Amino acid sequence: MKAAKKENSLFKKIDRHFEEAKYKASERKFEKHRTKAEKVIYPIIFVVFLIFALTFIIPFAWVLMNSFKSAKDYSNNFNGLPREWTFDNFIKAFTFKDQSTHNFTILQMLGMSIIVAGGGTIATIFFSSCAAYVVAKYRFPGRSVIFGVVIFSLIVPIVGALPSQIQLMKTLHLDGKIIGCIFIYSGGFGMNFMLLYSFYKNLSWTYVEAAKIDGAGDFKIFFRIIMPLAKGPIIAVTIMQLIGLWNDYLTPSMFLEEKPTLAFGLKALSDKMLNTGNYTLLFATIIVTMLPIIILFCCFSKTIMENTSVGGLKG
After folding, report:
1. Contact (Cβ atoms closer than 8 angstroms) between residue 133 and residue 200
2. Which residues in 219-234 are b (16+ Cβ under 10 Å) and which e?
3. pTM value?
4. Distances in whole angstroms, Cα of residue 61 to Cα of each of 210, 276, 289
5. Options 3.40.50.80, 1.10.1760.20, 1.10.3720.10, 1.10.10.10; which CATH number does 102-306 get?
6. What whole-number distance in Å separates Cα of residue 131 and Cα of residue 152?
7. pLDDT in tens, 223-256
8. Is residue 188 within 8 Å of 134, Cβ to Cβ?
9. CA separation for the pair 67, 278 (Å, rounded)
10. Where does the chain hold its CATH 1.10.3720.10 domain(s)?
């Protein structure tokens, strides 16, 4: 058994090195065949994207730097490095509470964000995946109508759907409840549907045909074959959806006012801190609320970028 495992490990390493060498060779070949115009345009595009990235990085670095200052140090030296680095602002950020957030602390709002954004992400990815697979792979009356409704829903502004959402929540008595907020997020259409639809549309039907010959049903095929094949795109869409719901302000502010999430609570706390002039505490609070999503994106950024391939058959 040990010898077999070592042999499999060796083959995997050889395959990995072969793929890397193949990629580098194709990259060198691509560079050789670049036209003169491409050789000029690519550096310009790189500079443009670099400037665009700096517009995000510089403000974040400035906020991070000032979050380590005392109030006096900030007022005397708001553009320089801290004369004395202090973590007092971060300690206060975890315990600060106010009536505007119903006395919820940052940690309590963090827990609410995890529940609401996590539950909403699981619900919407599941329903989007099911809907996208059915519309992409099964032919039935009204299929084109459903796809047209999806496209139309992407065109309609969010504000246009608010009156119907408010009426629906009141009718179902879900206003002010966590499950109600998750229910709003759980729609199966939208951009998630389109991304997963494009993957399922190009997925080979050979897998399904082989499974049907073996006697597998539609549900077993979807959960045991299709979803594992779509693991990469589903993870990528899940991360993007989670980031979007984590930063969502509108829905929690309307339907979950007494149980604030970070996005909603941070707005209320920032107004309070700005009124009192406690800027360094505000900066520390912003950094604390941003850290979970930054860490998540750093861990899965490669997955988001790479998992755009379609199909599972080679050759």
Report:
1. yes
2. eebbeebbeebbebbb
3. 0.74
4. 54, 24, 15
5. 1.10.3720.10
6. 16
7. 888 888 888 888 888 988 998 898 888 888 888 8
8. no
9. 11
10. 102-306
